[in-house]
Amino acid sequence: MIVKVTLGVLLVEYRDYFPPNFESDFLRGRKPYFWGPYHWAFFTHLISGPSSLMLGAILANDRFRKSVPIWHRRLGRVHVACVLLLLAPSGLWMACYAATGAVAALGLGSLAIATATCVVLGWRAAVARRFADHRRWMWRTLILLCSAVVIRMIGGLATIAQFDATWLYPVSTWVSWLVPLVVFESIQFLELRGQPRDRVAT
What we know:
By secondary structure, this protein is mostly helical. It is built from 9 helices and no strands. The protein has one domain (2-201).
């Protein structure tokens, strides 16, 4: 699903971005400020977003991690740098220009901060050799990165259902990452409760 949606975005949506088509859905109305600092954040986000998502999916694969651990570590460093130095800052900057208002801006800005926080905590856990914590934080990071996939699925379902409420996109900017994250945390809680106490303590 991640690969399919990402390829769909790259092959279809990106045709409106290189060069910028200001009649396309996302860029409509952005021309007055686009060629300022915004366009640097925009193009940085376009490149770092799919890269971070695909790297995260590869690194989450246990077979890859066990078969080539050295490449897991190398690509992990690239992944952390990409998210922390490119994706999160550009996403935070673009959030300030959310076309549908403050609710969407806060949702997207919070997503950028949460993603940066999770990837830093995951990296620190790996450095400290707390690998169970590392895996949990990096799964959280991947879930947050997948919000780009989820929000497009929500938009696609709304289009099929011919549902065009003005509040849909602002709410989607929160639902696309909060709901999957809550599901993940609930599963983690249930698994932790099911473990013997002595194992939990370790």
